[in-house]
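Hey Z.,

So I finally got round to the adenosine-5'-triphosphate thing we talked about over coffee. Here's the setup:
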Amino acid sequence: MSMLEAAGVHVRFGDRVVLESVDLAVAEGEFHGVMGPNGAGKTTFFNVLTGRVKPSRGKIRLGGEDVTGLSPHRIANKGIARSFQIMTLFDEFSARDNVMMGLPEFRARGLDIARAAAGDRRFAEQASDALAAVGLADKGDVRAKDLSYGDRRALEIAVALAQAPRVLCLDEPTSGLGSDGVQRLATLVARLKGKLTIVAIEHDMEFLFSLADRISVIHWGQVVARGTPHELQQNEWVRRSNLGKFA
Ligand SMILES: Nc1ncnc2c1ncn2[C@@H]1O[C@H](COP(=O)(O)OP(=O)(O)OP(=O)(O)O)[C@@H](O)[C@H]1O
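And the result:
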């Protein structure tokens, strides 16, 4: 059984069809890349997976359970975490507090002060684990706004990891990073690979081809090619487009 499955997903905005019959099956522990030209429908597909857009047809299943059309909040609670292309951190808060605020139990406790006091240490420990997982172990007390761009991107991933997701969706994780930052992210993803199911939209083909187990190419709202990086190198469509130029 696939950890994450999309079956026959259609999305239309007015009379514009943006996704047409998109299928995807991602195995547990797989790192699946999604690539394609600008405007192809990749972000819309992520929005369907994470509940921000309801498909006009088709199903999304997580671990076999139908989660189609659930709210983003409920889908997150079921285990699909998303790291956004646009920074979504609380700048004035420390890295650790940002991660703690991503913990479902932390948010669920509301303003119950007695429980909060008892829970704080445990939450802080969970947050520290997530920070360590992304190489920010010694930056827990640094305010988000004082972190470097690369550290902020790593922190976004820590926020998503702290939710102990079953599936992590990364929307252009390398965007805005210099080559050192990309290298560091590649090391992090390589460490997470196999332990976590990851789906990543990415324009950096070198990054994707070196790390992904399989890649789906979306163009005009449809999957036009899919396979391992090696298989895609042989794919006629990818060869003719300039998408595989790093392959
Ligand atoms: N809410 C919306 N209403 C109408 N059209 C939309 C909406 N969201 C996206 N679109 C259109 O759907 C198409 C696909 O957009 P989408 O953002 O999914 O593409 P993408 O592959 O992620 O592109 P990029 O790589 O540039 O981020 C675009 O033409 C976009 O203008």
